[in-house]
Structure formats: structure tokens, C-alpha cells
Design brief:
The chain is α/β, with parallel strands linked by helices. It contains 12 helices and 8 strands. The protein folds into 2 domains: 160 residues, Rossmann fold (3-Layer(aba) Sandwich); 89 residues, ProC C-terminal domain-like (ProC C-terminal domain-like fold). 32% of the residues are buried.
Length: 270
């Protein structure tokens, strides 16, 4: 059985670096346990300043790793797999892929190796241990789901799904954080429109969104149950809600998620 003592994150961009920071912030890992790769020397140096071992050499990065995390763009994954193919130890290591649209079959097929692969879809809130991460693996690799779950539970919440649902998870969870951020931005702009300074309006909108999410999380309730508590006959809340629906608020969110799902399924071309 593999361990997760040493991790190599191949691709120290927004998601890869957020994952590394979240693991360290959890207190379960020290920076020296996580090696990160970047292509540009200046980016390598910036990562090293945070205490992480960093290199431009993917093959070098995985030599002592128990877990290899793929955190590059879909169009870069084949080149990264070429880099590490000769160095992989299929008896000691396993792969966690954070790459949209790339399946475990794609990775194993390209490597032509029987290495365990877990597909994971977190979001950038992983940096503050608030990610929603979906995990999936083929039946032969199910034992590694437990290791991946333990790893990602240190940086947020996890749910295990069928791999066929991973593209949908990308749209709802990974892309979804941007959709919710955009709704907060819109609320803050509305606050400015009605008279608040922009920094105050944003602070208010952020806290309202945080409170709304916590209500659902702690009460385990449905959004409509909480909405009913703040809507009264002929009141201002129901008037605002109805106007938002007339303007397509819910429809726009749903259509955006559906389009993101469709797009995510076309990102990788083997």
C-alpha cells in the first residue's frame, strides 16, 4: 500500500500551488515534504521562497515521491507524462490528476503502465482548506481513493463519485467557485448602486454570502426553506427575488453550469 509522506506536484500554477499551501496550512504537512515544478525559473525561485523544494525537472521531482499530483493544463499533460514515464515506480507511487477532461484511462494508456490513478477535482478554495473536492477511480484502484480522501479531507470536504461524472464535477465545483464569486461581485455592485462605498459593499456582500452558505451547511436545509424565512407578503425581499427571476438569474446560473460542463468535456485531445 502506498503512503502519502512525500508529494510531487507537477505544475505549480494556481491550483497546484493552492493545494500545496492548503496542505501546509492544515498542519499535516511541512513544505519540505512537497516538491513543486514550474517551467519558468523565476516561478521556481518564487516557490522556493515559500519553503517548498521546487524544480523545472519533472522527472527529478518524482524520484522520492509517494504521490504524484498532475496539476497542469490539459494541453500540457502529454508532455509531462513523457517527462516522468521512465522514472515512474508503479509499485511504490500513485498518481492523482487534477486535470479537467483527462480520464484515468487516458493517463494509463499514454504511459502504457499499470500505475494506480485517482482523478480529483478540487477548487481554488483548497488554499484555505475550504475546497469541495470530487474523487474517482477505476475499480482496480479503489483502495487509493482512501488515501486520496485522507489527503483532500485536510483541505476541505470530499465526495466520491463515478468517474463518468467528473466533467460535471468540474463545472459545478471547480468552475462553480467563479460563478459564486461573480454573484458576490454583482451583489456588491448593487450595493454601490444604492449608495454604499465599494469596499463596504463588497465586505457586506461577502459576509452575507458566507452567512447564507453556513445556514445551509449547519442546518442541512434546502435554500428555499431559508428563503421562506426572510420573505413576507408584499415585502421587499420577494419583490427583489421576483425581479431577479424575471431577469433570468437562476436560468443564467444553470445555463452557465451546463455550458461549462460541455466545454470541460472537450479540453483534452489525446
Amino acid at each position: 500500500m502506498a503512503s502519502t509522506n512525500k508529494i510531487a506536484i507537477l505544475g505549480g500554477g494556481n491550483m497546484g500551488l493552492a493545494f500545496a499551501r492548503g496542505l501546509v496550512k492544515s498542519g499535516k504537512f511541512k513544505p519540505e515534504q512537497i516538491t513543486i515544478t514550474r517551467r519558468m525559473l523565476r516561478n521556481v525561485e518564487a516557490i522556493q521562497e515559500e519553503g517548498f523544494p521546487a524544480t523545472r525537472d519533472n522527472a527529478e521531482a518524482i524520484k522520492d515521491a509517494d504521490v504524484i499530483v498532475l496539476a497542469v493544463l490539459p494541453q500540457q499533460v502529454n508532455a509531462v507524462l513523457d517527462d516522468i514515464k521512465a522514472t515512474l515506480d508503479v509499485n511504490k507511487q500513485f498518481i492523482i490528476s487534477l486535470i479537467s477532461g483527462v480520464t484515468s484511462t487516458d493517463i494509463k494508456g499514454y504511459l502504457n503502465a499499470k500505475i494506480p490513478v485517482v482523478i480529483a477535482m478540487p477548487n481554488t478554495a483548497i488554499a484555505i482548506q475550504q475546497s469541495m473536492t470530487c474523487l474517482a477511480a477505476k475499480n482496480s484502484d479503489k483502495e487509493y481513493i482512501d488515501l486520496a480522501t485522507e489527503l483532500f479531507n485536510t483541505v476541505g470536504e470530499t465526495v466520491t463519485i463515478d468517474e463518468s461524472q467528473m466533467t460535471a464535477a468540474t463545472a459545478l465545483c471547480a468552475c462553480g467557485i467563479a460563478f459564486f464569486l461573480r454573484s458576490i461581485r454583482a451583489a456588491s455592485q448593487g450595493g454601490t448602486e444604492i449608495g454604499f462605498h465599494s469596499h463596504d459593499a463588497l465586505k457586506m456582500a461577502v459576509q452575507v454570502a458566507r452567512g447564507a452558505a453556513e445556514l445551509l451547511y449547519q442546518h442541512e436545509s434546502h435554500p428555499e426553506d431559508e428563503i421562506d424565512k426572510v420573505t413576507s407578503p408584499k415585502g421587499c425581499t420577494i419583490a427583489g427575488l421576483n425581479e431577479m427571476e424575471h431577469q433570468g438569474f437562476s436560468s443564467a446560473m444553470i445555463k452557465g453550469i451546463i455550458l461549462a460542463n460541455d466545454k470541460a468535456g472537450t479540453l483534452y485531445k489525446n
